[in-house]
Amino acid sequence: MIDERSIKANIRRIREEMGLTQEAIAQELDIESSTYWRLEEGTTQVINRNVYKIARLADISVEDLVVGDEVSRKLRDADDSREKLEALRDFYEKKLQEKDELVTNLNNYIKTLQK
Prior knowledge:
Helix content is 79%, strand content 0%. Helix 2 packs across helix 3 and helix 6 packs antiparallel against helix 7 (81-114). By secondary structure, it is an all-alpha fold. It has one domain: lambda repressor-like DNA-binding domains (434 Repressor (Amino-terminal Domain), Orthogonal Bundle), CATH 1.10.260.40. The radius of gyration is 17 Å and the shape is flat. The longest helix is centred in the last third of the chain and has 34 residues, at 81-114. The termini are far apart. The chain has helices at residues 4-18, 22-29, 33-41, 49-58, 62-67, 69-77, 81-114.
């Protein structure tokens, strides 16, 4: 399962590392600025043809964009399937922890609103 929130965060981080504004990258991708904004803000689906365009523009692999460069590097450097599985497990355990923290924060917020 692909974590679109992570992809969106990676897209924003990569754009910022490239020193591009949302308008500039949208122009490079030949899409409307508002379309690109919706990609980063999460109001549109990311997994589409733009992911490939963004990766190509940033001169990175789609894998780097999807799971991040650290996990992607671990996967490339792994000597065997076990190491690859460990890298992916670590990645998803981190994502599950982030999800759990988000759920806890949202539950606390709901409790605060109910008072």
